TrEMBL record:
Record organism: Streptomyces polychromogenes
Name of the protein this chain belongs to: FAD-dependent monooxygenase
Swiss-Prot/TrEMBL cofactor(s): FAD
Keyword terms, alphabetized: FAD, Flavoprotein, Monooxygenase, Oxidoreductase
Pfam families for the chain: FAD_binding_3 (PF01494), Rng_hyd_C (PF21274)
Transmembrane feature ranges: none
Presence of keyword Transmembrane helix: no
Length: 505
């Protein structure tokens, strides 16, 4: 039961990576949440193939990263439209893309959700929504059982690129049309030469084969002279014919596990929130999957929204806090659409693109160029507009080593509970005095930084601060190199903005 006689505080539509992560974040912050999922069971479709540094950090912030590392394979490099990107060990504790199938990510997130007490209702597809001043009512199609209704304070559509919630809420999805068609399949390729390297460009398009596990490959073909109908089924035979067209052979392709199709259409929801309905993940943005950013962005949408929505339903923060979700996440989505359009342009066949790739590739050997693209793809450089001009403000916090009375810890273990943390790294009492009235909601931690400087992409190394206010999503709401009256006032403003007014008495 929700806090107000509703069926739940929040209904999450869709048990993909975004919906599951959001449900966990909400639950961790005390909200009662039910996930409704159209399908009767997880599909097991492999889909996305990897997660990037910032998502690995986000999982680390919650203490569940080990589960993913146990099933994934760290990669030595990433890529921008097939051109190699180097990683830098000094920027993150996880400076690598982790190769792990989406099916495994979903299984691990669902396990965590069930541990936290999230209710997941399958065979339940959202088919209608009605909002009033206090609640949102959701009509569900439940297959053989007939329909059902659920009422909650908020509904979040995490129901994928063709989101029913987005359409029912009347939220526009402007963007650019598809210009190509890609087929993808997990298959055996007994005749693939041993010296085969990853992506091959040909005059008719390109193809790639990646060995995910011994015995089978993920094959992708991209062709640029035709855009398939969205509703046309993708078949093994189409994939085989496409591979023969672009590669001249099917490499003995057999035993398909999964075949699907995608394209380079790029669209973004005009509003991430309309009243009591919000959107996250593919429901809010779709784009070419180059560089593997979609699932990552969905998980990060969820981590941005979860604590805010939980605070609002619990009455700890005003409803306006929810507006910061669109303000912070829409620009991030816009930038990803932009970079995937650039990657799609760099992938087209033809002499002009060959030349462009050669020029681009020759620039990417420079560290500065590599760094800009690496930050863009990993989302390590995202800065939210929280106000303030300290270089750490708005940016994600590094998992620096801290010395506390209890021994050495990292910053991320302090975030496992999903609560805000006010880190006092110099002592002296000013920080504690400024935060009086918020200690019921904010964990005040006194510690010393083990390092003189912390990495802050894209700024570089920044001197360890005197104090930091870290939001539950790991972004810095306020930072100070010394805490005088002016910085203490700014701290109180930040505490009020993000965690509601001070408690008196
Ligand atoms: C070929 C390919 C490779 C990719 N590789 C990567 C990669 O390496 N890294 C990366 O980050 N991303 C990658 N992506 C993108 C990634 O797969 C998506 O961004 C990700 O699945 C989005 O997750 P989501 O939870 O938002 O949506 P989805 O995964 O689409 O989940 C939506 C869920 O909602 C359910 N649903 C739909 N309608 C309803 C309804 N009316 N009511 C209730 N439930 C409903 C669906 O059944 C589904 O379970 C790739 C995509 C493709 C196609």
């Amino acid at each position: 039961m929700g806090h107000t006689g509703t069926d739940a505080d929040v209904i999450v539509a869709g048990a993909g990576p975004t919906g599951l992560m959001l449900a966990c974040e909400l639950r961790l912050a005390g909200a009662d949440v039910v996930v409704v999922e159209r399908l009767a069971e997880r599909t097991g479709e492999s889909r996305a193939g990897g997660i990037h540094s910032r998502t690995l950090e986000v999982l680390d912030q919650r203490g569940i990263l080990d589960r993913f590392l146990a099933e994934g394979e760290p990669q030595p490099v990433g890529h921008f439209s097939g051109l190699y990107l180097e990683f830098d060990e000094s920027e993150s504790r996880h400076p690598y893309p982790l190769m792990i199938l989406q099916s495994a990510v979903e299984r691990l997130l669902e396990e965590w959700a069930l541990e936290l007490g999230v209710r997941i209702r399958r065979s339940a597809a959202v088919s209608g929504i009605h909002q009033d001043a206090e609640t949102v009512t959701v009509a569900l199609e439940t297959g053989g059982e007939g329909g059902a209704r659920l009422r909650a304070r908020y509904l979040v559509g995490c129901d994928g690129g063709r989101s029913t919630v987005r359409k029912l809420a009347g939220i526009g999805f402007p963007g650019t049309e598809a210009t190509m068609t890609a087929l993808i399949g997990d298959v055996e390729l007994p005749d693939l030469p041993e010296d085969y390297v990853w992506v091959r460009r040909t005059p008719g398009g390109d193809y790639s084969a990646i060995a995910f596990e011994p015995g089978w490959y993920r094959v992708i073909t991209s062709e640029y002279d035709r855009v398939a109908d969205r509703d046309e089924p993708a078949t093994f035979e189409q994939l085989r014919e496409s591979l023969i067209r672009v590669a001249g052979t099917d490499f003995g392709m057999r035993a398909p596990r999964w075949v699907s199709r995608f394209n380079d259409a790029a669209r973004q929801a005009a509003e991430y929130r309309r009243g009591r309905v919000l959107l996250a993940g593919d429901a809010a943005h779709i784009h070419f999957p180059a560089g593997g950013q979609g699932l990552n962005m969905g998980v990060q949408d969820a981590v941005n929204l979860g604590w805010k929505l939980a605070s609002v339903v619990a009455g700890r923060a005003p409803e306006e806090l929810l507006d910061s979700y669109h303000a912070e996440r829409h620009p991030v989505g816009e930038r990803v659409l932009h970079n995937t359009r650039a990657q799609a342009a760099l992938a087209r066949p033809g002499a002009a693109t060959d030349a462009l790739r050669e020029v681009f590739g020759s620039l990417m050997v420079f560290d500065d160029v590599n760094r800009v693209l690496r930050h863009m793809l990993t989302a390590l450089d995202v800065r939210y507009p929280v106000g303030g001009d300290h270089p750490m403000e708005g940016r994600r916090v590094f998992d620096a080593d801290l010395k506390t009375d209890g021994g050495v810890t990292g910053v991320y273990p302090l975030l496992h509970a999903g609560r805000p943390v006010l880190l006092d790294l110099r002592g002296g009492g000013e920080v504690a005095a400024a935060a009086e009235g918020w200690t019921d909601r904010v964990d005040l931690v006194e510690a010393r930084s083990e390092d003189a400087s912390w990495p802050v992409p894209p700024v570089g190394e920044v001197p360890a601060p005197a104090a930091l206010l870290i939001r539950p999503d790991g972004h810095v709401a306020w930072a100070a190199d010394s805490v005088g009256a002016e910085r203490a006032a700014a701290l109180r403003t930040a505490l009020t903005t993000w965690f509601g007014p001070a408690r008196r008495g």
